[in-house]
């Protein structure tokens, strides 16, 4: 089951580390680092049901019609 409740002991520290991870990288390098991080964390989780739920939650509200509507605004 996907836990969507706050679960980080130090969310500000995590955010700072995430920003630092990307410091000095090009957009392409940053995208690659994000992909690697996602794959490492997915491997750590290891549960396909949880991963499917996370992917669905991340995709919510990102369909083509909502994106094009936002661009047209």
Written overview of the protein:
The protein is built from four helices and no strands. With 73 residues, it is an all-alpha fold. The mean pLDDT is 92.
What integer value in Å does the Rg equal? 15 Å
Overall, the morphology is globular
Uncertain residue ranges: none
Coarse structural class: mainly alpha
Sheet having the most strands: none
Strand content: under 5%
Q: H/E series, N to C? A: HHHH
**What's the count of strands?**
0
Mean pLDDT: 92
Gap between N and C termini: 37 Å
Helical percentage? over 70%
Number of helices: 4
In brief:
The protein is an all-alpha fold.
Keywords:
4 helices, 73 residues, mainly alpha, 0% strand
Write the layout of secondary structure elements.
Elements: H1 11-22, H2 27-45, H3 48-59, H4 64-72
């Amino acid at each position: 089951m996907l836990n969507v409740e706050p679960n980080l002991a130090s969310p500000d520290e995590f955010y700072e580390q995430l920003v630092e991870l990307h410091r000095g990288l090009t957009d392409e390098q940053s995208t690659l680092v994000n992909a690697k991080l996602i794959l490492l964390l997915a491997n750590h989780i290891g549960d396909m049901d949880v991963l499917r739920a996370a992917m669905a939650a991340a995709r919510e509200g990102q369909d083509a019609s909502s994106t094009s509507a936002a661009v047209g605004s």
